[in-house]
Amino acid sequence: MYGLSVGISHVGDTLPDPVYALLSGLNGATVGIIALAAVNLAGRAITDKITRILVFLAGGLGMLYRSLWYYPVLMAAAGLTTMTWDLRWLQTSILYIRQQWTRFRRRWQGSKESPVAQLEHGKTDHKSWPTSSTSTCAVNKPLPSPPQNSETSTLAESHLNPHLIAVPLSKFAIIPPPAATTLPTSNPEPCSTECTIFPTLISTRLGSAILAIFIASFLVIILIRALLSHTTRLYHLFASLYLAGTIIFGGGPVVIPLLREYIVAPGWVSPRDFLLGLAIIQSFPGPNFNFVVYLGALAVKNTGASSFIGALLAFLAMYLPGMLVMVGLLGLWSRLAEKAWFLAVLRGVNASAVGLVFTAVYKLWEIGLVGSEGMGGAAGAEKGGMPLGGDPWLVFITAGAFVGGKWFNVSAPVAILSGGVAGVLKWAVVESIVR
C-alpha cells in the first residue's frame, strides 16, 4: 500500500474515463461483498430479540450522525442494555413494583371494611374460629405444614420476602452454577490446561498494567489533540488514527467511514485519492486496516515530512490500541470470563458492531460512483463520489457480487475484480454506441 500511495501521489488531477469506470465497478462489487459480510455477521450475533433490536438500532442510528464520540456511545449503550436484560434487573424491578402495588391495594381495600363486612364477603377465615364443638386445645394446636416442593416453596418465599421474587428465566439468562453437594477430597486432581479457556500466558498484574498504560496514553493523546491547535500534521494524523483504532469494533468495513471523516474532511487527502485507494485495496488480500498505510503516506504530502514516516505512524496508530487491549485482556480473561456482567456487555457490543457494518454499507454506497457521464469523471471524483444508485449497471454489479458470494461460493477477490471488469465493459459498450 505504501508503493501504491507513492504512485498515486504522482498521478495528475484527471484520469482517463476507463479508469473511473474500473474504479466504480470495483466499488460496486465491494459494497456487495461488505453487505454479504454484514448479513453473515448478523446471523451469528443475533441470538434473541434484544440483540436483533440492537443490530437494527445501531445500523440505523449510525447513518444519522457522524462524530468522534458517536460510535463509542452507541456501543457502550448497547453493552449496558444487554447487561440490564441478561441480569434481569429491569424484569425483577417491574415484578417487585407490581407485587408491592398489589399488596398495597389489598391492604387499602381491607382497611375500609368492618370485620363483619369482611366475614360476610368471605375475606376472613371463619373456619379457624372456635365453635362450641371445638376445645381450647384444638384451637391452639398448630396446623400441619403443607407439603414442600421446589415450585411452591419458591413462590411462598417470594411472598414472604419482598426481595426474593420468582422470575422465569430465559435460555439466555446467566445463572451461577449450583453449589457442590459433595465435600472436596483431601487430594484433588490438578486441573490440566484443558480446564481453562486460555492458558495463562500473562499474569493478572501484568495485564492490568498494560490496560492502565493504554488508558493513560489514550487520554494524554486525545487531550493534547483537543487542547493544542498548533501541533504538527504528523501528530494530528497519529492522534486521529489512534482514536479510530481504539473505538472500532467489527473489523475493516466499519473503519472506512471514520477514515473518510478523519483524513478527507480536514483536507489532508483528496476525495479522489481516497476513493482510488479504497477501490484498489478491496481486490488485495489482507485486512482493510492496511488502508491507513496508504492514507498516512498521502496525508503528509507537501508538509516536509517523509511519506514513509507518515505511513509508519498511521500503521502504529491503527494497530497499537487493539494489540494493547487484547494483550491486557489475556491477563484478566480467566477472571472476566466468569463474570456474568462482562459476558452480557460483550453480547451487546458485538451486536452494535454488526449494526455499524450495515452503516458502513450505506456510507460506501453513497460514495461508490466515481465520475458521472453528465459531469465528467474528474468532477464526480472531486465531489467525493456519488451514490451507486445513479448508475443501474453498478446496482446490478453490487447485487451480482452479493448473490455470487452468498449462493455460488464466489470468493471476495474474484467478485471484486469481476465487478471492475464489468464496469470497464459497460464503458466500452456505451462508447461504441455513442461513436
Can you describe what's shown?
This protein is an all-alpha fold. It is 66% helix and 0% strand. The two termini are 38 Å apart.
Summarize the structure.
The protein has 435 residues and is an all-alpha fold. The chain has helices at residues 2-9, 17-45, 49-62, 70-86, 89-112, 115-120, 136-140, 150-160, 204-227, 233-247, 252-264, 271-281, 291-299, 307-336, 340-367, 377-382, 392-407, 412-434.
Feature tags:
single chain, 435 residues, mainly alpha, 66% helix
Furnish the topology, listing elements before pairings.
Blueprint: H1 2-9, H2 17-45, H3 49-62, H4 70-86, H5 89-112, H6 115-120, H7 136-140, H8 150-160, H9 204-227, H10 233-247, H11 252-264, H12 271-281, H13 291-299, H14 307-336, H15 340-367, H16 377-382, H17 392-407, H18 412-434
Helix pairs in contact: 1-13, 2-12, 2-15, 2-17, 2-18, 3-4, 3-15, 4-15, 9-10, 9-14, 10-11, 10-14, 11-15, 13-14, 17-18
